[in-house]
Each structure stands twice: as structure tokens, then as C-alpha cells.
């Protein structure tokens, strides 16, 4: 389904079939809600709860994706005609949350409404004096990070349009199809050693963040002929190496991770369901220097782009029966094989809400399927936010953001 076609009565279709990736998230979470959060932090006087509800009430009827709920027993999305805004827009106060981590933990742990309405909500979280956060939450079985980005802007922004344009679809190459098939075959292989991330899962998560000017990442990229995502991944590789070396005295082998990629096409911005695939990548944590790590990352991502791996996996999933593809998808992003998803999300221009401009944005999701961490770089306007969501069993993983900044500094020194 590329677009939601209106019926003869001008209404949205009464139900929409869940796609392969949607069912994969449903299976990975064992039917529970796996939250996806888009959090926007502001400085300045906070809006009132009533004014946020008024904004949501004005916008919600024009956003198709917000009018569906998940019927898990039928693996379909069912249309909901009436939205009770007061049930979807809430308020919290966290006056001691100086770094946003408490807000993130609240959004990842607070149960979502269990009634028959759509699984999404908006939170106005009051932080320390002069600071507040607006959060849009949904279920990962319903929407991916880029889908949440389009919805959050349309629902909350003073300008509901904007954001990065969806990528056009292209014909995959033979090399790309071979690489994607290799990922699928590998999903049924033996477990992969990931000493820094292997072990028990408690199911409870902690969150840490750090911000950096986007210009710094771009400047490092210009020095080495790399993209912002390349710089992010290379610095993360070196951060994991340093972290593991400090904890154990041993070097870490190359770290397998899942790289999510959006395949949301033009016209699908507000369609319910996930429009994404993943590709397996080895982060060069065995590389002694961040410069060496960056060279290897640039080579790896260059091969992915040249082979059009994004389009290859999209085509492969489309050609696979949903039940089979969903089970393969669960295996592709499982703690047996990868440390977790590592993604880069570009929100585009900064969100403005009631005249205030968000100073940072962060995309978050929780852990499932034996995964012990989810690491995301979220960019908006001139700021990038690194977010590390990790199982509490990884007691010192909150050191990763500072180690990532240290690796970035080494890259700047060349």
C-alpha cells in the first residue's frame, strides 16, 4: 500500500493490513507496546495543557495515521472515527530533569492508553525553570522513526509542513540483492560474539544524551570525505572500543549492529505502518584510532549506497510472504546476532510550537528481542543529539555519550 485511497464516501478505508515490518515489531515485542518517542526540548515559558490540546484538536483530523488503532488479533489497523483529545494529551512535571534523561525514561516506561482508541499520545513535560519538553509517542508496530517525525511536525508544529523529503525509490543492483540475501541467510546462523553487549536482559532501561553542534560533525566529514552518519558511526565505534577496554582490559572485536533505513516514499508521509528496512553492519571497534575507524566506515557505507542496499531489502521484503518476512525481520534484529539498532534520523528544520523553537530533538525507542541497547543520532537545524537507550544490566553504558564526544574531538585533531 503506497497511499491511503479515500472511499467513495470520501472517508479513509475502514481497515488497513499491517505490513511485514509492522508484524515483525509486533512479534518482537510479544504483542506489547514498543514505544517510539519523538521528544522536543524548549527553553522559555511553557504552553498550557489546554493550548496544546487545542493545537492537537485542530490538526488531528487532517493526519490519516492518527485515525487507526492496532487490532493485534487480526494484524490489521482499524479506523477510529472519533478522537477524544483529552485522552491523548497529558502533562507531567519533572523539575529536577536537567539533562532530559528522566523525561526519556518516563516516556519509555509509562503505559500507553489501553482503551480502544489509537495508540499514540502527546506529553507536555515541565522540567527545570524555563525549560519544557513536548513528546509525541506511538507504538513501533504502528510507526517508525521517520513516520513519527512527519506526524509530530504535522501535529505540533506552527508550520505543519517541512522536514526532509522522502527518498525516491530506485532499482536495486544485483550486488545489493546479494548483500541483502546474505543478511537473511546470516540471520539463521550461529550467535555472534558481542562481549560488551552480551548477557542477561532485565527489561528495564536507562537513557543518556549528549548534544553537539551539527556543524562540528559536518566539518569532520568534510575533512575526511565522510557524511554526518559516517562520523557518528566511527566515533561510536571508538567509544565502544574505549569503554570495553576500560571495563575489561581487552580489545573488542568488530561489533555487528542493525542500521535502520527509511523506505518511506513520496506520498507516504502520513500513512500508518513502518516504512523501513535494516542492513547489518560491522562497526570497526577493533580499530585502534578513530581515524582508522572512520576510513573503514566510509568504505562500508559507500558499498551500501553503491549497491542500493536500501532498495534491495525493500524489494526482497515485498516479494516475501508477510508471515515469513516478519519472522525473518525478528531474527535480523535480535540480540543473538546484533548489539542493537544504530540509526541516524534527520528531522530537518527545527520544530516551532506556539512561537518557540525547539533547541533539540531526540528519537527514542526501547529494547526487545534480547537487544540491550538502541543508539540514535537525531539532527534538527543546527544541533545533533546522541541518545543511548540501554538495559540497566549495562551498568556503565551511560559513559558512552562522553566517550563518543572524546572520539569526535580526536577526529577533529586529525
UniProtKB/TrEMBL annotation:
<dbReference type="Pfam" id="PF03007">
    <property type="entry name" value="WS_DGAT_cat"/>
</dbReference>
<dbReference type="InterPro" id="IPR004255">
    <property type="entry name" value="O-acyltransferase_WSD1_N"/>
</dbReference>
<protein>
    <submittedName>
        <fullName>Wax ester/triacylglycerol synthase domain-containing protein</fullName>
    </submittedName>
</protein>
<feature type="domain" description="O-acyltransferase WSD1-like N-terminal">
    <location>
        <begin position="43"/>
        <end position="172"/>
    </location>
</feature>
Amino acid at each position: 500500500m503506497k497511499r491511503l485511497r479515500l472511499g467513495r464516501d470520501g472517508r479513509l478505508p475502514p481497515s488497513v493490513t499491517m505490513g511485514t515490518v509492522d508484524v515483525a515489531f509486533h512479534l518482537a515485542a510479544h504483542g506489547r507496546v514498543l514505544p517510539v518517542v519523538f521528544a522536543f526540548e524548549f527553553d522559555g515559558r511553557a504552553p498550557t495543557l489546554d493550548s496544546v490540546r487545542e493545537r492537537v484538536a485542530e490538526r488531528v483530523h487532517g493526519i490519516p495515521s492518527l485515525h487507526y488503532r492496532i487490532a493485534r488479533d487480526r494484524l490489521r489497523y482499524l479506523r477510529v472515527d472519533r478522537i477524544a483529545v483529552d485522552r491523548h494529551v497529558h502533562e507531567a512535571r519533572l523539575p529536577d530533569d536537567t539533562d532530559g534523561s528522566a523525561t526519556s525514561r518516563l516516556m519509555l516506561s509509562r503505559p500507553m492508553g489501553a482503551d480502544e482508541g489509537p495508540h499514540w499520545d502527546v506529553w507536555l513535560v515541565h522540567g527545570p525553570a524555563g525549560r519544557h519538553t513536548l513528546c509525541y509517542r506511538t507504538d513501533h508496530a504502528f510507526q517508525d522513526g521517520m513516520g513519527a517525525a512527519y506526524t509530530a511536525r504535522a501535529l505540533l508544529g506552527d508550520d505543519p509542513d517541512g522536514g526532509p523529503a522522502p527518498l525516491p525509490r530506485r532499482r536495486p543492483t544485483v550486488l545489493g540483492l546479494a548483500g541483502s540475501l546474505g543478511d537473511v541467510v546470516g540471520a539463521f546462523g550461529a550467535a555472534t560474539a558481542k562481549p560488551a553487549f552480551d548477557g542477561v536482559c532485565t527489561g528495564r532501561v536507562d537513557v543518556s544524551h549528549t548534544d553537539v553542534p551539527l556543524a562540528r560533525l559536518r566539518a569532520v566529514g568534510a575533512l575526511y570525505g565522510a557524511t554526518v552518519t559516517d562520523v557518528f558511526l566511527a566515533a561510536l565505534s571508538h567509544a565502544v572500543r574505549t569503554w570495553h577496554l576500560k571495563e575489561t582490559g581487552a580489545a573488542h572485536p568488530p561489533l555487528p549492529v542493525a542500521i535502520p533505513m527509511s523506505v518511506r516514499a513520496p506520498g507516504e508521509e502520513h500513512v500508518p505502518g513502518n516504512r523501513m528496512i535494516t542492513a547489518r553492519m560491522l562497526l570497526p571497534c577493533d580499530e585502534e584510532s578513530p581515524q582508522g575507524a572512520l576510513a573503514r566506515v566510509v568504505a562500508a557505507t559507500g558499498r551500501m549506497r553503491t549497491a542500493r542496499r536500501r532498495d534491495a531489502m525493500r524489494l526482497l521484503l515485498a516479494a516475501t510472504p508477510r508471515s515469513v518476512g516478519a519472522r525473518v525481520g525478528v531474527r535480523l534484529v535480535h540480540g543473538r546476532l546484533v548489539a542493537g539498532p544504530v540509526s541516524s534520523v534527520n528531522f530537518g528544520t527545527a520544530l516551532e510550537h506556539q512561537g518557540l523553537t525547539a533547541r533539540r530533538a531526540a528519537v527514542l525507542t526501547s529494547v526487545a528481542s534480547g537487544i540491550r541497547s538502541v543508539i540514535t543520532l537525531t539532527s534538527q537545524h543546527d544541533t545533533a543529539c546522541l541518545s543511548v537507550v540501554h538495559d540497566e544490566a549495562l551498568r556503565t553504558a551511560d559513559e558512552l555519550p562522553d566517550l563518543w564526544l572524546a572520539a569526535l574531538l580526536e577526529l577533529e585533531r586529525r
